[in-house]
Amino acid sequence: MARERRAPAGPFDYSRKLSLRLVFIIGAIFLYAPIVVLVIFSFNDSRRGGNVIWKGFTTKYYEKAFNNDALVEAFINSLAIAFISTLIAVILGALTAVVLWRFRFPLKPVFEGMVSLPIVIPEICMGVSLAVFFSSFGLYVPRDMPFPLNLTNIIIAHITFSFPFAAMVIRTRLNSFNREMEEAAKDLGATEFQVFRDILLPHMKPGLVAGALLAFTLSLDDFVITFFTSGPNTVTFPIKVYSMVRFSVTPEINAASTILILITLLVTFLAMRFQSFEEPRQ
Amino acid sequence: MNKSESPIISVKGVTKRFGSFTALQDISLDIRPGEIFALLGPSGCGKSTLLRIIAGLETATEGTVAIDGQDMTGIPANKRPVNMVFQSYAVFPHMSVADNVAYGLKLERRPAAEIREKVAEALAQVHLSDFAHRKPDQLSGGQRQRVALARALVKRPKVLLLDEPLSALDAKLRDAMRLELVKLQESVGVSFVIVTHDQSEALAMADRIAVLKDGVLRQLDSPAALYKRPVDRFVADFIGSINMFAVTGRRAEGGDAARLETAELGAIAVPAAHLPAAGKGALTLAVRPERVKVGAKAQKEAQGEGGLVSVAGRLGDVAFQGNSSIVEVLLEGGGSLSALVSEAEADHLMQAESGSPITAWWALDDMLILPENATAA
Known about the structure:
The complex is a heterodimer of chains A (282) and B (377). Chain A has 282 residues and is mainly α. Chain A has helices at residues 18-41, 60-67, 69-102, 108-120, 123-136, 152-175, 179-187, 192-220, 224-229, 237-247, 251-278. Chain A folds into 2 domains: 2-61, no CATH class; 68-281, MetI-like fold (Orthogonal Bundle). Chain A is built from 11 helices and no strands. In chain A, helix 8 (192-220) packs antiparallel against helix 11. Chain B folds into 2 domains: 9-230, Rossmann fold; 234-373, CATH 2.40.50.100. Chain B is 25% helix and 33% strand. Classes of the chains: A mainly alpha (282), B alpha+beta (377).
């Protein structure tokens, strides 16, 4: 009986070409291996986080991380900053996007360029400029302000760099809006506000969710700009982790980072679920 | 004047300019209650702009639109008693079919029970009762159009405006939908204003047709009148197919009659009554293919008391069309003309060799003498 031979790979059977598979595998390893190692070694029963020798399974570093008040406080600060700055960034971004999409006005290209400028400006420059701005305008919030007002500077800084991303994502979404839909709603008796609420906003929703997701993750792990705008009493998670690493890398940091990864994944997952519920395929 | 005879929409002197471009030039027309009115013209003629001005989605630079006797100037689209079916249907994708239809009624803050009842009625009218809870992305193009129709009709508009309603459908569905739209119009009784670039669509559906070209109303008439008595060369060419011969010279003959010279047909004497009264530009002689007879030699049987025009040529291609055929006659004076012949005649002609001599003829009364543009001063 003749041995069955597999047909040679067709022109679009990329997944069957060994060379391309290899590229994919190497890429995946470089991207994800460090994260996997980080997660695995958060359970390593060793004093040193940098230790690559497996010494047994333990969850004590999670316990330790939860009992580290400074770390927990930094974590809560980060989440509060992320939530508040995301909310404001998405509202500002949505308004900007609608203005850019809907209206024509003098110097519109200039305005459009200025909106996206924070995306291309190096973070270090933004950090320095914001620090100088806050200090020279005396905007440094007193240290004893109650939470989360003590985070005002950082929140403002985060809104500044994350709202252009939200605006761009929402603007892109608006491009696919069929203007006849707006006219149809008006024709059926809707006022401008009703058109916005009933027709435009539902269309924008996936863009709003995606923009929020982007703003949230950008804020959560921002280091450079936060470093320049945070005070001694307003430490965020990335800055706290950095300062801990400077002394020694312990599995505690691995554990805290794993929790951060989990939260990010959870938020992304929820956002995607929400989106697929709300928005039928078109 | 009889109440039912007063126009439901009265367009008076409407001009629309976009910057230096004039989209509509002094359009005046009346739309009668209960008729299907077609705005017909090639793309860019301004027909959609006129529809949007009636709907209130565009404002006229000059002129007025009155709906049911009320001047609509300054009244926005959402307060006008007309509704529109958009070319893309513009069905709201995030709402179910029933919610789409209910949307206009909800904006009127009608009681929920009444809305339910009217929505069910409207969906039954367009045969979509079983699809009430579907989302638009689960519907075909034809079904989406029905949603758009139901959504507009449920508001009980005084006039329904339809922008190229059939252009997005495939050929077979288009023919079915034509009939269905006419039936729907008969059952709801409101006037339909249909914008279309497809003359066969307008001829088949409309009671009256306004032919537009470059923002100017060229002719407003019934389909039969447009076909039989086009006022100028453009309308004749746009509606149906027609053979045309440019008149190159004109000589007066006894009385008011004239002798018209053409390259293809030679000189033809025509009585004064046949000459167009209005319009300017070069004259064109035109004859519909179904009026042209072909044979070995001209036979003077069934033409009227007027004369006969006959022209010698050679047999060209014969295009089979089922129950009839289009015969191409290559004229000796250059150019060609086409004649529509019956199946039997075509069989007979097919036996003759291509290029063999043949004569085409038609009654003088069937020949149209058209100005370039009847509306130009």
